[in-house]
Amino acid sequence: xxxxxxxxxxxxxxxxxxxxxxxxxxxxxxxxxxxxxxxxxxxxxxxxxxxxxxxxxxxxxxxxxxxxxxxxxxxxxxxxxxxxxxxxxxxxxxxxxxxxxxxxxxxxxxxxxxxxxxxxxxxxxxxxxxxxxxxxxxxxxxxxxxxxxxxxxxxxxxxxxxxxxxxxxxxxxxxxxxxxxxxxxxxxxxxxxxxxxxxxxxxxxxxxxx
Length: 210
Fold this sequence. Notes:
Layout: H1 2-16, H2 21-33, H3 35-62, H4 66-91, H5 109-120, H6 124-136, H7 147-172, H8 178-208
């Protein structure tokens, strides 16, 4: 039980870590309005990630041999999505719409739903979540008793990531140069793109193995 919980916690962090559209939104809210606004926005992303985790868990519970049989396909699709996301991060300026640092504000339900809709607009995240479940080797018992701890682990991992992410940016927001953040985003994009290529290579390697 404990290993599955630890794996699920790691999945929650890994699913949140790529600096995609939803993460950029959290970053913008944290830099513009502070920690509480950024964290509330991150909770919207957590809600979607947990929903995708539910789909992944039931896919695993319903067809335990699906991952073993089509693991190469999951790696190929997930890797392609991650690589394209990384390329988008590396070659675009996600901060062009930002206008300066505003006064800090509290949690807002509109921030939550804005992040929720942004995350839902990227259904490819479901394939990434499924790829992470395959990569970490999460096992679901036939009785389904391990489902709740796994979902709790994913949610806690995601919440922890967004809390620390928004807290760090909220603390440092007045000292951050937006031009510098553009380059950070580009470097992060290149790293994400490399990870996607590795996943693609893993899928291609498994195809070659037959």
